[in-house]
Amino acid sequence: MIVGIDDTDSRKGLCTTYLCAVLVDEFKKRGYGEVSTPRLVRLNPCIPFKTRGNGAVSFEIMIARRKEEKVKEVVKARVSELSELREEETNPGVVFIDDTALNTEQSESMLKNFYENAVREVLKIENAYEIISELHFDYFGLKNKRGIIGALAAASFLALQKNNYYDFTYELMAYRRKERWGTSRIIEEASVWKADEATYPLTWDTVDVANNNIVFAPHSPCPVLFGIRGDSIDAIYKAYELIHAEPVERKMLFVTNQGTDFHLIRLEDAKENLQDYHSYVLDGMVSSNPRTIEGGHVLFSIALSGKPAEKSIECIAYEPTKGFRDIIRELRVGDEITVFGSLKKKTINLEKVAISKLNNAVERNPKCDKCGRTMKSAGRLQGYMCKHCGTYRADKDVVIVDRGIEDGLYEVPPVARRHISKPLIRMRMEETNKKIHPGR
Ligand code: ATP
């Protein structure tokens, strides 16, 4: 049986992954049956009612049918006990998927669509209820039960991903002892840098070198001490062993969709026109030079490939993306690029940019053939003239300049990275002819 859980926490406390870890440990201890590595999925990062990273969890328990009710009781009891029910925005949901319901192509395709839409689209709770009722799943919810959406998505991910259907990564979460929740975290910084040095790039997003920052520990009052992310379980545990920190209550390894870019929709796959609260990969040409606006954010526009020129779209690199803005500021009209990011208020919030072709040709006022001085405009649409020699030229010169940046892929640094965004360093494992410029 697969159990999916979501929406149990609030900004003031708990973390759905912690509740999952408590349940997995409890079931292992009770010896009910083998329990799988739990899954942690990050769903649509633009959902307004998310607490933080729009995460949901699931695990599978291999158990005799007669014991299923007992497992459900324990899950319901822990969710009811531990959820932050006083907070308005906490609406827990749990979904139980019976393995026998997964045998048909139809059920698999329904779960696949649901999971993929939960990461890329904005769903209604009715979308979850329809599947639950059609496939005869059991569920449980509290308050408005909105967590059912994430719970079904996390359970669906596990059902499909266990056959390596989707790209995945790992995160080892370490949880604090209860008496320390809400106090400042004790983590020896030097040991974290050492752990990163010993295991990067098999682990990633532990530190941000460019910004001299440790990024693997939250600052909220939640039970998480830190989380080590990566592609190799061995490297993750090696890093864990090297880190000196306050004693942990427990730790739990999750298989996740973090660092996969699964939220991004290619323009050709977009069902409708570009919509807010969706994340895209868009090819185009820079159509206005970048400008820095109040607050240090950098804004420019691109004309989308294959679309009418008036369909150009604004892109923004926010101040927290730090050094990434320096790359964006180097872009010029005519550069061929691909932008990656979420659409909010009709503006793409940049997560990555791929520069395919830099426009090296720059138009300049011509130089005088006689004296070499720069010619001046002779008036609107009247060419250029050398004030000194009186020579005349009709057009500007086109000169090839060195642009100071290279083509290839650039990304926001780890301090500004979304959980689901793929760090460029993971692309070293792919066959791509694009150069990568990791942003850390
Ligand atoms: P944390 O990261 O601390 O676990 P969170 O950011 O995951 O918190 P939740 O408290 O889980 O936030 O709230 C997100 C809510 O949005 C859940 O109720 C979930 O069911 C719902 N949800 C998730 N994805 C979608 C989606 N694509 N469309 C509509 N609702 C969604």
Description:
The chain has 440 residues and is α+β, with helices and mostly antiparallel strands. The chain folds into 4 domains: 2-161, Alpha-Beta Plaits (2-Layer Sandwich); 169-256, Glycinamide Ribonucleotide Synthetase, Chain A, domain 4 (Alpha-Beta Complex), CATH 3.90.600.20; 264-360 and 402-437, OB fold (Dihydrolipoamide Acetyltransferase, E2P); 361-400, no CATH class. Helix content is 22%, strand content 28%. It contains 8 helices and 24 strands. It has helices at residues 16-30, 68-82, 105-120, 125-134, 147-161, 189-199, 233-242, 324-329, and strands spanning 2-6, 39-42, 55-60, 93-97, 138-141, 169-176, 203-204, 207-208, 213-214, 224-230, 248-256, 264-266, 278-292, 298-304, 313-317, 336-344, 347-357, 361-364, 376-377, 384-385, 392-393, 397-400, 408-411, 436-437. A 9-stranded mixed sheet has the order 5-4-1-3-2-11-6-10-7, sandwiched between helices. The protein is elongated. It starts with a strand and ends with a strand. Bound molecules: adenosine-5'-triphosphate (ATP). Adenosine-5'-triphosphate is lined by residues 6-7, 9, 15-16, 43-44, 47, 49-55, 91, 118, 121-123, 146-147, 149-150.
